[in-house]
Specification:
It is built from 30 helices and 9 strands. The protein has 711 residues and is mainly α. The two termini are 37 Å apart. The protein binds 2-acetamido-2-deoxy-beta-D-glucopyranose (NAG) (4 copies). One 2-acetamido-2-deoxy-beta-D-glucopyranose (NAG) binds next to loops.
């Protein structure tokens, strides 16, 4: 009977050029027939019927599986032929602008919202209590409206006031700048942040970079458009000042000069391509050297205030990204100090209002939203959809109280059993990759060995950082946060505490590798730790759950893991990335992939997707598929979803595609991936097992005659 039941099982999938699967199928059929005949001969017909029914996969009928099924049914259009357009088969009815990753992140934020809105009582002064209080004061729009512009006016007074509202002291430039940077998180002339050094061993270092401007640089715009941009920005600044009680007639002068400072500063920017062409993306300079080159700023005291408690002196090395910009900026500041001191002061404060507007009342936010919207229209950027207040508040609470919310989220959504199941999945994917490495046709033996070695040393970090989950830790983290008396004050106190915490954690190497919050649905590779980081937020339904059919977990989460793994090795594919490899074979595989992808024309012309992304997609599916077929349990061990009519191996591909589901034509402007339909069809058409399990006739789009092997 064991032999009978192996009908569902296919042996390990070889590389695309290898095994075709016919011989085995025939063998099984013959064995089946023989068994049937002998069954009949023995007269035990009943037994064979029992065997037949028993051989099908079990159905997963847990509530989680029903939810998953509902999602699959809602997005797929099963009237489409899977062999010609699998994307529509799986995603044809998908709606909304967001990708499945964005949708999952939003769902995770919804879970945090439910946690933050549930009644609870926490020890006074604890991190939990502060997080709840902060969230509640963020949601308390009535109190925020009632306070109006008062809290902001108070901040301006602390900075020495400004001429617009009367009652001001002349500008002490260095003091004001240092306060803006350290107390109000505002960087009017340059940005300074602590991040790993661009080159190994990636030690944290203070980096100085161009600032972010509210308006796009003049040189990037047509003159007419730029004039409109300036007009919109002028309206915005005028409105701000009016909201702050300034005289609208006097305001215009200040607003105009602020715009002219911004516009001159942005003319100093060197585009990234130019920096690249000059071969210098950054300079290493000491504070002292920078002081000589850009003397208008008191660098040491500004940086000391901003990066406290980090000890800094004049010989501190800094990474400077655009030295020319800083020199010109310094000249401009000196010139303004001589001629237009008051205007420089109001420029700095007007910029601050923009930075703080998320913590202000609805009129300030609305002004900002309108400005953003107008600028997007003028520069033809796709609009960013407005988010509900609760989501903004969850995000802010998450930024300021990350360890606390991480602990809440993990407790709710990432149990130890989920984690160990996910670890097992990752191990299976890694194994399959290491096995595959032996058969990569363009790799020489030594590179293969090195790659296998690197792969075996690769770490995985899952769920949330360990430190975040220690409750006593989360409690101590926020000792310096003072909440109240109004939301703006709470916001500023949290922002300061966060920066000090970041500085402290950067000085301890163990905290480094978590760049995303545990509830976000995105994975990444941390070069510094040689680790793939998979936050708890990613390992959630519909991508992963221990109770899902394994086909779903391998197809969805498994292929995501495999893609992250491949990113580590992608540089080998670049020109010069592997001098000892067979460059002809690699070039051949590359051309093959280009031809494969060219078979899928896209609405709106062909898309020259990035080679590395396509190679990673194709490789990831192959690895996940191999891992899944190597670990197929007997047919009774595999489950599938009810009502879909898909066998486990078919479900695997459906789940792979499901990850990419997104309404057609709704790609975000910044998305560097291939369009979703191509990310489904490219890899599927390169996978013989897909054609086999869906019985695609030869020559249909998803069963082409040629296949390529990159990984
Ligand atoms: C499903 O696909 C069929 C065939 O391509 C098409 O006619 C139909 O409009 C699709 N349904 C939806 C809801 O998109
Ligand atoms: C920046 O300063 C340099 C040296 O003073 C000068 O030659 C250059 O023209 C300035 N750049 C701009 C865009 O003003
Ligand atoms: C800021 O401080 C530096 C260093 O002390 C000084 O050279 C510079 O003139 C000051 N800047 C202004 C605008 O006063
Ligand atoms: C500056 O700081 C560095 C590292 O903190 C230290 O090694 C060095 O001795 C200090 N230099 C001076 C002149 O104090």
């Amino acid at each position: 009977m064991g032999a009978l039941c192996s009908q569902e099982r296919s042996p390990e999938e070889g590389p695309p050029t290898g095994w075709r699967g016919r011989g085995w199928g025939a063998l099984v059929r013959r064995a089946l027939l023989a068994a049937l005949l002998s069954g009949l001969l023995l007269g035990s017909f009943v037994l064979s019927v029992y065997v037949f029914r028993g051989c099908g996969p079990r159905l997963c009928e847990t509530p989680r599986c029903w939810d998953l099924l509902a999602g699959y049914l809602a997005s797929g259009n099963t009237t489409v032929a899977p062999c010609s357009d699998f994307f529509s088969f799986a995603c044809g009815k998908a709606k909304g602008d967001s990708s499945s990753f964005q949708a999952l992140t939003e769902a995770n934020k919804g879970r945090l919202r439910r946690i933050l809105e549930a009644p609870g009582s926490w020890p006074p002064g604890s991190g939990e209590e502060k997080a709840f209080q902060f969230y509640n004061s963020c949601m308390d729009t009535r109190a925020i409206e009632a306070a109006g512009a008062g809290p902001l006016r108070q901040v301006i007074q602390e900075l020495g006031g400004w001429q617009i509202s009367g009652n001001w002291t002349p500008l002490d430039f260095n003091r004001t700048l240092s306060l803006l940077m350290s107390q109000y998180d505002h960087f009017p002339f340059f940005r300074a942040y602590l991040q790993p050094h661009p080159t190994p061993p990636h030690r944290p270092v203070i980096q100085i970079d161009q600032p972010e401007f509210d308006i796009p640089p003049k040189q990037d715009q047509e003159q007419q458009i730029y004039a409109q941009i300036v007009r919109e920005y002028l309206n915005y600044l005028t409105l701000l000042v009016t909201l702050l009680g300034g005289d609208p007639v006097k305001v215009e002068n200040y607003a105009f000069s602020s715009i002219s400072i911004t516009s001159r500063l942005s003319q100093f920017l060197r585009p990234l391509e130019q920096q690249q062409a000059q071969g210098k993306l950054f300079h290493m300079v000491t504070v002292e050297q920078l002081q000589e080159m850009a003397p208008a700023i008191d660098w040491l005291s500004c940086l000391q205030a901003t990066f406290a408690p980090m000890p800094l002196n004049r010989s501190q090395p800094l990474v400077v990204h655009d030295l020319e910009y800083l020199k010109n900026m310094s000249q401009l500041v000196e010139e303004q100090m001589l001629n237009n001191r008051d205007l420089l002061q109001s420029h700095m404060i007007l910029g601050l209002v923009g930075t703080l507007s998320p913590a202000l009342g609805s009129q300030f936010q609305e002004a900002r939203r309108r400005l953003t919207q107008k600028l997007q229209e003028l520069t033809e950027q796709p609009p960013v959809p407005a988010r509900p207040r609760w989501m903004e508040c969850v995000e802010k609470t998450g930024t300021f109280f990350r360890p606390t919310l991480a602990a809440f989220f993990v407790r709710e959504a990432f149990s130890p059993s989920t984690q160990s199941a996910a670890m097992e999945l990752f191990a299976a994917i890694k194994d399959a990759f290491v096995t595959r490495l032996r058969r990569v046709p363009w790799m020489d033996e030594q590179t293969q060995k090195q790659a296998q070695d690197r792969a075996s040393r690769l770490q995985v970090k899952m769920g949330a950082p360990e430190w975040a989950l220690k409750p006593e830790q989360a409690r101590q983290e926020y000792a310096d946060i003072q909440l109240g008396p109004n939301f703006l004050r709470s916001f500023l106190s949290c922002a300061r505490s966060l920066r000090a915490r970041n500085v402290r954690s950067f000085l301890q190497p163990s905290h480094r590798s978590w760049q995303v919050s545990p509830w976000e649905a995105s994975a990444y590779y941390s070069v510094a730790d040689h680790a793939v980081v998979l936050p708890a937020g990613l390992l959630q339904p519909p991508f992963f759950h221990p109770s899902f059919p394994r086909a779903v977990n391998f197809g969805a989460a498994g292929s995501i893991m495999a893609r992250e793994l491949l990113r580590v090795f992608s540089p080998l594919l670049l020109p010069g990335g592997c001098p000892s490899c067979d460059s002809q074979a690699l070039q051949g595989a590359r051309l093959c992939l280009e031809r494969l992808y060219a078979a899928f024309p896209l609405p709106g012309g062909t898309f020259s997707g990035t080679f590395l992304e396509s190679a990673a997609d194709v490789g990831a599916l192959a690895i996940a598929q191999q891992a899944y077929s190597q670990r197929l349990h007997g047919p009774r061990g595999e489950t599938t979803l009810p009502d879909l009519g898909l066998r486990p191996q078919q479900l695997f591909f459906h789940s792979y595609a499901q990850v990419m589901c997104q309404a057609l034509g709704s790609r975000a402007a910044l998305d560097t991936h291939n369009p979703p339909a191509l990310r489904v069809h490219g890899p599927l058409s390169n996978t013989p097992a897909f054609a086999r399990h869906f019985r695609c006739p030869h020559g249909t789009p998803l069963n082409p005659s040629n296949r390529c092997q990159l990984w």
